[in-house]
Design goal:
Layout: H1 2-12, E1 18-19, E2 29-31, E3 36-38, H2 40-47, E4 52-57, H3 62-75, E5 82-90, H4 94-102, H5 107-113, H6 118-121, H7 123-136, E6 140-144, H8 147-155, H9 167-180, H10 188-210, E7 216-222, H11 223-226, E8 242-248, E9 271-275, E10 277-278
Parallel strand pairs: 4-7, 4-8, 5-6, 5-7, 8-9
Antiparallel strand pairs: 1-10, 2-3, 2-9
Helix pairs in contact: 1-3, 3-7, 4-5, 5-7, 8-10, 9-10
């Protein structure tokens, strides 16, 4: 088992377009709860004992998706049948996905049935995960709120049907959303709607996991949704998940605790799995003054 895992990890490190591959944290795993480094094998063995495992990604980083496949392969070795839940499929298409599975559909046909946004989500990165579910006979769970539902909640936050968020949780979500908008703070009413839509997504994904009843699950989602202090785990009342944050390293941040200020807190994840950065254009570059570029 250890040799096979190391082989998969070696393959994962061969992806092109990655930066800071020689960073001292790249490829290492930090147990946030104990404050110690552990091996990927130890982390995944612990995860396999949990009812729900949440893998928080940066969506466009190919290394994160390779490591997700490593995680799935390793967790599956105990023989326990799980369900693979994915943010990238909207829950309104679950019945179509189930019908396609009943027809022994392959990954491509499942993507069609689930109306996967192949361009927006970059299907090539997610196809190996869907293929894994097909190969292992795991149910594929469409976990997300649709864009249409989210837009309605942004316009009228009360549509979420959720109780008011605690101040600390609301502030954490606001910070994440403002950062996602390149530091620009949306108008107050719109920001409140965006926070509520984010909460509704988290609640929907949690509900998708719980809907699998006695079946254990693995959820593939963005880092923000994976946060234990402000994401999906907050809605898993009696089923404490293992939350793994796949984290791109920063050149100036050389110690694990450097990532627990700003990016996350001690309460955000069980493990941080550090990876090289993906070489991408700065999405906020056009918004910066010319002198700052």
């Amino acid at each position: 088992m250890r040799a096979a895992l190391l082989g998969l990890l070696a393959l994962a490190g061969c992806a092109g377009g990655l930066l800071l591959q020689d960073h001292p944290l790249a490829g290492r795993v930090w147990d946030v709860r104990t404050g110690a480094f552990v091996t990927a094998e130890e982390m995944l063995a612990q995860a396999a004992r949990s009812q729900h495992v949440i893998l928080g990604e940066t969506h466009d980083n190919p290394e994160h998706h390779r490591l997700q496949r490593v995680a799935l392969e390793t967790i599956a070795r105990d023989g326990k049948r799980r369900a693979l839940a994915m943010e990238q499929f909207d829950s309104e298409h679950q019945s179509a996905i189930d019908a396609a599975r009943a027809r022994a559909a392959d990954a491509e046909a499942l993507a069609d049935a689930g109306r996967f946004d192949r361009k927006g989500w970059n299907w090539a990165l997610y196809k190996p995960l869907v293929e894994f579910a097909v190969e292992r006979g795991w149910p594929l769970v469409a976990a997300n709120l649709s864009r249409g539902e989210a837009r309605l909640i942004i316009a009228e936050p009360s549509r979420s049907g959720l109780p008011p968020a605690a101040a600390a949780m609301r502030e954490a979500l606001e910070r994440d959303l403002i950062e996602g908008h390149c530091g620009e703070r949306p108008e107050a009413r719109r920001l409140a709607g965006m926070v509520e839509a984010q909460r509704a997504r988290d609640a929907r994904m949690a509900g998708a996991l719980v809907s699998q009843a006695a079946t254990a699950t693995v959820l593939v989602t963005g880092q923000g949704h994976a946060r234990k202090d402000a994401g999906v785990p907050r809605y898993l009342k009696d089923d404490a998940p293992i939350s793994i944050g796949l984290v791109e390293v920063e050149d100036a941040q050389r110690e694990p605790r450097d990532y627990l200020t700003g990016f996350a807190t001690q309460a955000s994840f069980d493990y941080l799995w550090f990876t090289p950065r993906f070489a991408r254009k700065d999405p906020c570059g056009a918004m910066k003054p010319a002198a700052a570029r």
